[in-house]
From TrEMBL, chain A:
GO terms for cellular component: ATP-binding cassette (ABC) transporter complex. It comes from Fluviispira multicolorata. Residues 62-249 form the ABC transmembrane type-1 domain. It is a multi-pass membrane protein. GO terms for biological process: amino acid transport. This is ABC transporter permease subunit.
UniProtKB/TrEMBL annotation, chain B:
InterPro entries: AAA+_ATPase, ABC_ATPase_HisP-typ, ABC_transporter-like_ATP-bd, ABC_transporter-like_CS, MetN_ABC_transporter-like, P-loop_NTPase. The lineage of its organism: Bacteria, Pseudomonadati, Bdellovibrionota, Oligoflexia, Silvanigrellales. Belongs to the ABC transporter superfamily. This is Cell division ATP-binding protein FtsE. PROSITE patterns: ABC_TRANSPORTER_1, ABC_TRANSPORTER_2. GO terms for molecular function: ABC-type amino acid transporter activity; ATP binding; ATP hydrolysis activity. It is found in: Cell membrane. It comes from the Bacteria. Keywords: Amino-acid transport, ATP-binding, Cell membrane, Membrane, Nucleotide-binding, Transport. Its main location: membrane. Part of the ABC transporter FtsEX involved in cellular division. Important for assembly or stability of the septal ring. It is a peripheral membrane protein. It holds the Pfam family ABC_tran. Residues 7-245 form the ABC transporter domain.
């Protein structure tokens, strides 16, 4: 807890930092000699009635981004828990295998993984771009989920397990009633962080010609030459989606930790 | 008082092994505790008191020797391990209440899952026990909302909830603010008075004197001296115990 006196310095420091950032941004935009025109984005957001109306390419792309990210998160979490369990067992072979898996997917660029999945594996097994894309995102995500799972369990307070054992609970009862509820809450913040970063990484799917949000933005830029407007708007869409995801995570975290508060 | 032996340790050795080091913590421990006896275990930090206590309910495995609780040796089967833990309750220095459960949920968990009682019955039992430790008005609070003394009393109720024959206490008062020590000591003394068999690890000599008939002094993995608590504290026989008592009363 910072004491009263310190908190004044903290406020001062924040104002200082915010001030500097604001100055840099304002000055940069002031020097930018550019006629802003966001109106060209209109038809990309919502089709004009002459074209029959309905969601424009950006919203369609957004939907694909959301859908594929969701699938990646879902399959990634399921796989991740399986690999996470393997990582926490004492069985040497499966543990090593899981470790190698996790290391490969965590320590290589997603872009390369995507190329391999699409051009090499995808060609051999005749996978479509979206299948290869979801596959890559799932595997990539699962490596992080596995590591989060392992880390949370490794840091789980041993005293709690001792207390549960001393009470006479069976291993299964300990896992379900004592470890799971607490570990789940502890895992939530890093998991949500991982999901948010996966949604951002899904922009890489544009390189395998999947018409997701970033791909649609690239297409729009080549037609309109309005790259600033386009990318700012796209960033806003990512921001909205990810803020919703983080807020939901925070809400869940709060609900799960009512018990941990005063 | 019945003379049935409920806890017996024979030539118990415990060596903690890491790839590089070996740490011989218990060096041939022998003792017996009879039903209804209250025994204090004292000794300097690191002498192996907690380890010794934890071998009794098999939270710690032993390297050699034999531990028997109520005639059961946990080496025999998984079932006997479970039976030993059903027969023993444990109280920890840092309470170790389950933070995601209210006080009453913490206490009702054992009866419900371990004794197989219905939810209603378990809650009724938990209610009675919490009332007994003076927490009738705090049953629906989560551990974080309770003082240290209150948390430890919930932990005592939780340990008693499975109707143990033996209560193991590992420094039950040493994480408490001084003004909260007495509320926990009083309850443990009350429990001792009901005829519960207890083994209490403690640094507080006055607590040891208040609660126990017999004391064992553990140092460096050996039981150096044991005997009647009052006599031992009044007239320690070994030089080691003398200097230990001197050191601890000076603090
Ligand atoms: N899991 C473990 N692995 C390795 N060494 C251990 C382990 N648990 C305890 N020890 C060591 O065993 C020795 C005895 O520990 P123990 O906790 O039994 O002492 P204690 O008498 O209870 O001390 P304290 O008064 O500080 O609680 C210590 O030196 C400790 O470092
Ligand atoms: Mg100890």
């Amino acid at each position: 807890m910072p004491d009263k006196k310190l908190s004044i310095y903290y406020s001062f420091l924040s104002f200082f930092v915010i001030g500097i950032i604001a100055f840099i941004i304002v000055r940069s935009f002031y020097h930018l000699d550019y006629q802003w025109d966001f109106s060209v984005l209109g038809p990309y957001i919502w089709l004009p009635s002459s074209d029959g109306g309905g969601p424009g390419l950006f919203l369609q792309g957004l939907w694909i981004t959301i859908k594929m990210s969701f699938e990646g998160i879902l399959f990634g979490s399921i796989l991740g828990i399986i690999f996470g369990i393997l990582l926490t067992t004492n069985e040497k072979v499966s543990k090593t295998a899981a470790l190698i898996y996790v290391d490969i997917f965590r320590n290589t660029p997603v872009l390369v993984q995507l190329y391999v999945a699409y051009f090499i594996v995808g060609t051999a097994f005749n996978l479509s771009g979206s299948v290869a894309g979801v596959l890559t995102m799932s595997l990539f995500c699962s490596a992080y989920v596995a590591e989060i799972f392992r880390g949370t369990l490794a840091n789980f307070e041993k005293g709690q397990i001792d207390a549960a054992k001393a009470l006479g609970l069976s291993p299964l009862q300990i896992a379900r009633k004592v470890i799971a509820p607490q570990a789940l809450r502890n895992m939530l913040p890093p998991l949500v962080g991982q999901f948010v970063s996966l949604i951002k990484d899904s922009s890489l799917l544009s390189v395998v010609a999947i018409p997701e949000l970033t791909k649609e933005a690239q297409n729009a830029v080549t037609v309109t030459f309005r790259s600033f407007e386009t990318w700012f708007f796209i960033a806003l869409l990512y921001f909205v989606v990810n803020t919703l995801v983080s807020s939901f995570g925070r809400y869940l975290e709060k609900r799960l930790s009512v018990s941990l508060k005063q | 008082m019945s003379q049935e032996v409920v806890v017996s340790l024979k030539e118990v050795n415990k060596i903690f092994r890491t790839p590089k080091t070996e740490h011989h913590v218990l060096k041939g421990i022998n003792f017996e505790v009879k039903q209804g006896e209250v025994v204090a275990l004292i000794g300097p930090s690191g002498s192996g008191k907690s380890t010794c206590l934890r071998t009794i309910n098999a939270l710690e495995t032993i390297t050699s020797g034999d531990v028997e609780v109520c005639g059961i040796n946990y080496r025999n089967s998984k079932k006997s391990l479970h039976m030993i833990r059903r027969n023993t309750g444990m109280i920890f220095q840092r309470f170790e209440l389950f933070p995601h459960m209210t006080a009453i949920e913490n206490v009702a968990l054992g009866p419900n899952l371990v004794l197989g009682k219905s939810k209603d019955e378990s809650y009724k039992m938990a209610k009675d026990l919490l009332a007994r430790v003076g927490l009738a008005n705090h049953m629906d609070k989560f551990p974080k909302g309770l003082s240290g003394g209150q948390q430890q009393r919930v932990a005592i109720a939780r340990a008693l909830a499975i109707n143990p024959k033996i209560l193991l206490c590992d420094e039950p008062t040493s994480a408490l603010d001084p003004e909260l020590v007495d509320e926990v000591v009083d309850i443990l003394v009350d429990i001792a008075a009901t005829g519960m068999t207890m083994i209490v690890v403690t640094h507080e000599l006055y607590f040891a004197q208040k609660v126990s008939q017999r004391t064992m002094f553990l140092e460096n993995g050996y039981i150096v001296e044991q005997g009647d608590t009052k006599k031992m504290f009044a007239a320690p026989k070994t030089e080691r115990l003398q200097s230990f008592l001197k050191r601890i009363t000076h603090q």
